[in-house]
Design a protein that fits this description.
Largest sheet: 8 strands, mixed
Number of strands: 8
CATH class: Alpha Beta
Strand content: 25-35%
CATH superfamily: Gcn5-related N-acetyltransferase (GNAT)
Shape: globular
CATH architecture: 3-Layer(aba) Sandwich
Structural class: alpha+beta
Amino acid sequence: MNIFRITDIKHPCFVKAWALYKESFPDEERRLLSNQTTIMDHPNYHFEVIFQGDCFLGIIFWWGFDDLRYIEHFAISTVHRGKGYGQIILNDFKAKDLRPILLEVELPNEEIKQRRIEFYERLGFHLTNHVYYQPAYCKGKNPIQLLLMSYPLSISDEEVAHFVKNYHPIIYA
């Protein structure tokens, strides 16, 4: 499996990655292309595409900070879902670095959303009980209530507050 970091929307793989991003996440959980363009080369931001040979498998967009990694978006191509690639990719991601990992998930009010949470739990992630809102990606939109998951340990309310105070201004600028 090969993972490539893209820092410019002119990269040949960007179009395929952007299409999967738009297909996999609702509007309110996505950046506009103009916003995406401004963060592509941010030193903490990793816009990564995943291939097996010539076969495009998926995307993982994440932020690396001194004390944690935050997975902002992760998706496997529709034709490759259910084949174990998500588990392989996330296990590899976990093994590359000892920093804790945070990610957001939607409230489990539908079966698919509950299954997504269960997928992350099988990989060792812990669901927090903290009330959490993802800031709006675009002006004029409202924050979205989501849940945070963490690896390898559960995180406290203080750690969530630290994430919100110190990293939201960077991630959602």
